[in-house]
Amino acid sequence: MERRFVDNLPPMDLMRSEKMTSVQLIIPVESAHRAVSYLGEVGLLQFRDLNADKSPFQRTFVNQVKRCAEMSRKLRFFKDQISKASLLSSAHPVIQSDIELEELERRLAEHENELMEMNANGEKLRLSYNELLEFKLVLQKAVGFLVSSGSHAVSERELDENVYSKDDYVETASLLEQEMRSGRSDQSGLRFISGIICKSKVLRFERILFRATRGNMLFNQASADEEIMDPVSSEMVEKTVFVVFFSGEQAKTKILKICEAFGANFYPVPEDITKQRQITREVSSRLGELEATLDAGMRHRNKALASINIHLAKWISMVRREKAVYDILNMLNFDVTKKCLVGEGWCPIFAKNQIQAALQRATFDSNSQVGIIFHVMDAVESPPTYFRTNKFTNAFQEIVDAYGVARYQEANPSVYTVVTFPFLFAVMFGDWGHGICLLLGALVLIARESKLGTRKLGSFMEMLYGGRYVLLLMSLFSIYCGLIYNEFFSVPFHIFGGSAYKCRETSCGDAKTTGLVKYQDPYPFGVDPSWRGSRSELPFLNSLKMKMSILLGVAQMNLGIILSYFNGRFFGSSLDIRYQFVPQMIFLNSLFGYLSLLIITKWCTGSQADLYHVIIYMFLSPTDDLGENQLFWGQRPLQIILLLLALIAVPWMLFPKPFILKRLHTEL
Amino acid sequence: MYGFEALTFNIHAGYLEAIVRGHRAGLLTAADYNNLCQCETLDDIKMHLSATEYGPYLQNEPSPLHTTTIVEKCTLKLVDDYKHMLCQATEPLSTFLEYITYGHMIDNVVLIVTGTLHERDVQELLEKCHPLGMFDSIATLAVAQNMRELYRLVLVDTPLAPYFSECITSEDLDDMNIEIMRNTLYKAYLEDFYRFCQKLGGATAEIMSDLLSFEADRRAVNISINSIGTELTRDDRKKLYSNFGLFYPYGHEELAVCEDIDQVRGVMEKYPPYQSIFSKLSYGESQMLDKAFYEEEVKRLCLAFEQQFHYGVFFAYMRLREQEIRNLMWISECVAQNQKSRVHDSVVFIF
C-alpha cells in the first residue's frame, strides 16, 4: 500500500531530468537554412555531429562559414576603429527591418572600402602635417642655435659686424657664429644639418654620429615644445630638435645616411634671419590650413563611423547567428540522391509540438513543396540530461552542476539545494543585522534585474547578479538564524521579552563569579541575551553550535542516502537498494544517528555526561561501565549492538555488489 | 650537484618550464600537417590554422592572403611567446634565453650588410630581418664600409661584440668575406654558448652540449660542402669549424681536405650517430641532405623534453617552433604555386 502511495505521487518537475527522445529530421535543401534558424530560436533540439570525422574544410557549407568569418573580421575592424576614435557604443538597439546576408556582406564591404580610403587619406594628410609641424619646431629651436637668443631686435645690418660677443652663450658657439657670418653662403668650411628625431633615440644617435665622424662634429639639441602624433601607433611622441655641425663632404654623406637609418627627418634652415622669419610665417599659415583640412577629414570619418555604430551590435549578432546556423548545417548529412539533408538529435518530449510548429513554419516560409519529416528514432546511447529551470532555480542548478551533472533521470539534488545551501550559509553567517544588509543588497539586484540583464557587467558584478536569488534566500535565512543566535551586529537584544536570568542580589556583585539565577520561564525564541559577556558564554555557545551542526549534518546525509533509495526504486535496481542503501543507512545511523540521539537526550535531560568520552570509549572499550556518562538505561548493551551492526554493514556495502555485477556481466 | 635539481629548479624557473611545456603541447601534429597538405588554397590553410594556436594571429588578416603574411604572423606568435618568457625569467635563465637569439642577430647583421652591398633600401631590409634578432642600432649597419667600421660603429654595443676579435680585417666587405664573417661569428657564438652551458652544469650542460655539438657538426658539414670548388683554402676552412662536437678534432682534419660530397659522406659515416642521416640518401645526392639534417635535429630536440628541470627545453621549443614555421612556409608556397605534389619533399613532422 505504501508503495502504491509513493508511486502515485505527482512527479516533481525538477526532481528528475526531462524525458528525452532521439529524433531524426529529413529536410529538403531549400528550406534547410530557414528550418535550422527557426529551430535555433526554439532552442530545444541538440544535433548530433554526423560529420565528426571530416576536417573543417571538407564539410559542405565551408564557403558560407568562410564568408561569415570574413564578415566578422570586418565587423571587428569597425569595432576597433570606433573604439580608437573613442566614440561611445550606442546602448539602444535600433529596431529595424532584417536585411539579408548577401546585402549585409555588400554593405560591409562598401563600408570597409570607404573607411580604409578615409584612413589612407587621413594618414597622408597627417604625414604632411607632421612634416610641417616638425619644420616649424626645427625653425623655432634651430634658430636659437644659429643666432644667439635674445637678439631678435638685432637688425640685419648689425649682422655684418664681425665682432660679436654674447656672454650667455657658449664660447664655441660664438666662434661658430663669427665664422658663419664672415662668409655667409657657399662655405666649404663649417656646415650644419638641422633636423628632428624621437627623444628616445637621441642618445644613441649622438653616440653613433660621434663615432662615425671620429669626434669631428658638434651636436646641439633642444626639446621640442609640442608633441607630434606618430601616424603608425597614433600616440603622441616627444621629439628633440638637433643641429649637427661638421665639415667635409664625406662626413655629410655619412651623417645623412645615419639620419635616415634612425628615422630622423632633417629640414634645411636658412641662415639668413629674414629668410627664417619669412619661412616661419609661410609654414605657420600652411599649418593652419592643413589643420583645418585634417579636422574636416576627421569629422567626416567620425560621422561615417557613427552611422556604422548604430547598426554594429545588430550586425554582429546577425553574423554570429548565421555562423551558428551554418555550423549546424555542417553537422547534417547531405543526401545527394534525395536532395535533402538528414540530421539526428535529441529533444525533450514536451518540446516536440513546438519543434513541429517551427518546422511547419519554415516549410511555409520557404515555399517548399515537400514538408520536413520529423520522426522518433531509437538510440543506443543514453540521452542527455536537461533540466527546465527558471531564473530562480537556474543559479542552484548551476551550483549543483559544478560538482557533477546528474545522469539521465537521476534524482536532482538541486531541488533540496534551493533550501539547504542558503540555510547552511546562514548557520555560519548568523546575524540578523548583517542579514538585513544582505537582504537589501539582494532586493536591489532583483529590482534592477531587467536593466542589469542587458548590460555587460564586470566579472564580479556578473557573479553577484547571477546569484541574486541565492543571495535573497541566504539573507532571509540569515535573519532567521541571527534571531536564533540573538545577534544584531553581534549585540543581543531583548526582542522576545525579558531575560530569564537575574542576579542573586540587586547590586549584581557576584554576577561574574557565582553567576545569575533563573527566575522565570526560559527566553521564548533564541539564545537568552544574558549570555553575552558572561564568563561561560563561549563554552555554552560553542557547544550549542557544534551540536546543532552535527544534527543538521547528519540529517542532510540521511537525506542523500534516502535519495539513493528513490533512485534505486525508479531505475528498478534492487541490487542498489539491498546492497547499498540498507547497509549505508545502518552504518550512518548506528554511529552518527546514535550521536544525534545522545545530543537530543542530553539537551532534554540536562545530564552532565561528556559525549566525546561516550563515543570514543564506545569504540575503545565498549564493555566498560559508563559511570557518570550514562544517559539512559540500557545504554551499554545498546552501544555494543550498534557497534556490531556498523561492523557488519561495512563489508555488506562493499563486497556483494561488485561480485554480483561481475557474475551478471559474465553471464550475458 | 647533478641529480638534485629537482630540489631547487622550480623556485625560479618552474613557472616558465610549465609555460614552455604548454606551448610545446600546442605544436602542430602529423594529423594537422596531413590536413594542411590537402588544402587547395591559402584561405583553407588560414581556416585550418585558426583552430590551432595561431588562430588569434591570423584571424584579422583580410582575405587575399600572401604566404609572407602567414609566415610573418606565425613568427609574431613565436616572438610573443619568447618575450613573455624573457620578461618572467631571472638569471641565469634570462641570459640563456638571450643566447638563443644571438644566432638570429648574426643572420640579420649579414642580411643588412649584404643588402647594402647590393644597393638596397635600408627600410626594406629591416622588414626582412627576423624579429628575434633585432637590436637598436641595427639600421646603422648600412653606413659601414668595412668590417672595422662595422665593429666600431655599431656592433661594439651589441652582445655580438666579443665574437668579433677573430674576424676584424681591414678589407672591404664583399660577398665572400661576408660569408666568412658570418661563419666566423657563428663559430664564436657557438663556442661561447657551449662554454656558458658547461658553466651552468647539471642536466642543462649535458643536454645542451649534445644539441650544440650536433649544430656545430651540421655547420661543419655544410661549410665543407658549400666551399667545395671555391677559393677557400683548407686552412681557412678549418678555421671556420667550431672547437667542440663529435668531429673535433680528427673529423675536422678529414673534412678540411674533402673535395666532393662522397668524401664528406665517407667522413661522416665513420661516426655512428650520423650514419643514419646519410643512409637515406643515395650517392651523389645533396638536396635531401638538408631535410635529413632537420629530421635528425627534430628527433634530438624532442628528446630534450623527456627530462625535467633543465633549460634545454627552452632552446628545444624555440627550434621546434622555427621548424614548424619553416614547414608552414613550405606548405603555403607549394599550395600557392599549385605544386602540391612536392609538399612532402620538405616537411618534417615533429610528432
From TrEMBL, chain A:
Q: Which residues form a coiled coil?
A: 94-128
One MF annotation (Gene Ontology) recorded for this entry: proton-transporting ATPase activity, rotational mechanism
Signal peptide per UniProt: none
- Highest taxon in the source lineage: Eukaryota
Gene Ontology biological process: vacuolar acidification
Q: Which Pfam families match?
A: V_ATPase_I
Its annotated compartments are: Membrane
Membrane topology type? Multi-pass membrane protein
Record-linked PANTHER family: V-TYPE PROTON ATPASE SUBUNIT A1, VACUOLAR PROTON ATPASES
**Family, as annotated:** Belongs to the V-ATPase 116 kDa subunit family.
What is the protein named?
V-type proton ATPase subunit a
Q: Which organism is it from?
A: Carya illinoinensis
Automatic annotation (TrEMBL), chain B:
- Organism name: Carya illinoinensis (Pecan)
The text of the family note is: Belongs to the V-ATPase V0D/AC39 subunit family.
Q: What is this protein called?
A: V-type proton ATPase subunit
**One cellular component GO annotation, for this chain's record?**
vacuolar membrane
Major location category of this protein:
membrane
- Where does this one sit in the cell? Vacuole membrane
Keyword annotations for this protein, in alphabetical order, are: Hydrogen ion transport, Ion transport, Transport
Task: Tell me the classification of the organism that encodes this protein.
Answer: Eukaryota, Viridiplantae, Streptophyta, Embryophyta, Tracheophyta
Subunit text? V-ATPase is a heteromultimeric enzyme composed of a peripheral catalytic V1 complex (components A to H) attached to an integral membrane V0 proton pore complex (components: a, c, c'', d and e).
